[in-house]
Amino acid sequence: MASSLFYLLLLVQVCSITAKRLDATKSPRFPAILIFGDSLLDTGNNNFIPTILKANHKPYGQDFPGKIPTGRFSNGKLVSDLLASALGIKDTVPPFLDPNLPQEELQTGVCFASAGSGYDDMTTVMSGVIPVSKQPEYLKQYIEKLKGATGEAKASDIINGSLVVVTSGSNDVTINYFSGGARRLQFPLIGGYHDFLLQRVQAFVKELYNQGCRNMLIAGLPPLGCWGAGFNMGGRCVDYSQSQSYNQKLVAMLSQLQESLPGSKLVYADFYTPLFDMMNNPQEYGKTSIFTIVSILQYIYARALFSNGKIHKRV
């Protein structure tokens, strides 16, 4: 799959929600896109909260339109932007916390993700970023603003028909668990911590469902390996098979959960396979070695595999 595009992989899974192919000549399949999670999807919310985890400075944004750092942990657009564009919704997804957010952006969706976040609230204690469990609180605020802009009936239709995209879990495993914190003592075996995270995922999905969201794309863990930030913080390398174990449990859980939530469509997004391919075939992505990306961007790009705008488009 080395020659395919990253966001097209996501689109294949998104299109399975409607069982129809995307046709650019027709109206967007989804009226809006709502983004939750961590730095893979955060389009700038951390700019507006008290945390040191910000990407509002160079070298970030050097390939973004206007060549300015926007708070995206990338030199270009993120998967959230690329997916929204590919679906015909909008070119970029704005951060909800931007105080200058134009009202017209509300109708097509916003981003609630926060770089450094995780499903486990303990993951964000030191950084002060917004844990995934708290992001639905901003969704409630968004819905109220949307009602004010469009009316309650239309707002409900937008939320029901929107595509929700969620990516998280990597920070939990690498920074929280494998850095030797309290969770490691609570769950000596990684499988137990995986089960704990999946309980958090389940509660999160139910909360979004209760607020009206129906179409959700939930990403699994990528092949974490010697992940940059975790390694520099004293963590240890994570065996790739542990990501696969979590992902297998996530697939089973989403299937069962969908059956219990009438009208919901819960789709698993496989980030593991394409990124594993990048690591084994870096030449297909314009790199002689995947480690050249890590060595150039180093610690400042916590997720080296996601820091390159071109990488964001690949699988």
TrEMBL record:
Entry keyword annotation includes Signal: yes
Superkingdom: Eukaryota
Biological processes, Gene Ontology terms: lipid metabolic process
UniProt cross-references to InterPro entries, sorted A to Z: GDSL (IPR001087), GDSL_lipolytic_enzyme (IPR050592), Lipase_GDSL_AS (IPR008265), SGNH_hydro_sf (IPR036514), SGNH_plant_lipase-like (IPR035669)
Keyword Kinase listed: no
Signal sequence extent: 1-19
CDD domains for this protein: SGNH_plant_lipase_like (cd01837)
GO MF, one example: lipase activity
UniProt keyword list: Signal
Pfam family of the protein (one): Lipase_GDSL
PANTHER family documented for this protein: GDSL ESTERASE/LIPASE EXL3 (PTHR45642), SGNH HYDROLASE-TYPE ESTERASE DOMAIN-CONTAINING PROTEIN (PTHR45642:SF30)
Protein family: Belongs to the 'GDSL' lipolytic enzyme family.
Protein name listed in UniProt: GDSL esterase/lipase
Native organism: Rhododendron griersonianum
